[in-house]
Amino acid sequence: MSFRRFLFLLILFAAAAALGIGFGLRSYRVFTGEQLIATVECLPAPPDSGFNFRLRLTPVVSGGKELARTYGIYGQQWMAGGEYLKWHSWLNLLGVKNRYKLTRLSGRYIDASNERYNPRAVYALNGGTGEMWLLLYKIQNSLPFVEAVYGNAAYTLAEPGGTWGIYITHSGYIIRRLPPK
User: Fold this and answer.
1) C-alpha Rg value of the chain to the nearest Å
2) 11, 61, 123, 128 - which has most CB atoms within 10 Å?
3) Could you give the CA distance from residue 44 to residue 72 in angstroms, rounded to a whole number?
4) pLDDT of residue 28
5) Cβ count near 22 (within 10 Å)
6) How far is CA 122 from CA 29, 42, 47, 128, 152, in A?
7) H-helix or E-strand containing 17?
8) Residue spans of the chain under pLDDT 50
């Protein structure tokens, strides 16, 4: 084998390896990435309010914080959830991002029987589910590039003084405790 042929094969192998590594890193980022969409601070409730605690929710849009709102909550936990449209994975690799809409914030009792007999507080966020999402739920099987349209929620224990981040991932919402400021 001539030196030129060897050099050509070596360069071709190096280019293929670089492409493979680049594709692998892109895939890793696409399928493990998280985006902060809101922060939540848990605050004590005023004694005369009847609530167990309050939540101050601050939406995060394009990396910047928006106007915070405070909500009175019943129960020992809080829950955030909403709608989620999941494209087929090959579209994610091409850069198409799954769609979501955070639509609900509520309290949650640890014991399910308490949900039936104790007060509840549920708040619509971002206008609630909306007509477009209802339509997507109905026609999702007819949409060629959509893997699924579904609701998703995450919940955690309420600890006054704590702060959490609500993140969107490749498959839905997660809540992660943030370090103290």
Assistant:
1) 23
2) 123
3) 10
4) 60
5) 10
6) 34, 16, 20, 11, 15
7) helix 3-32
8) none
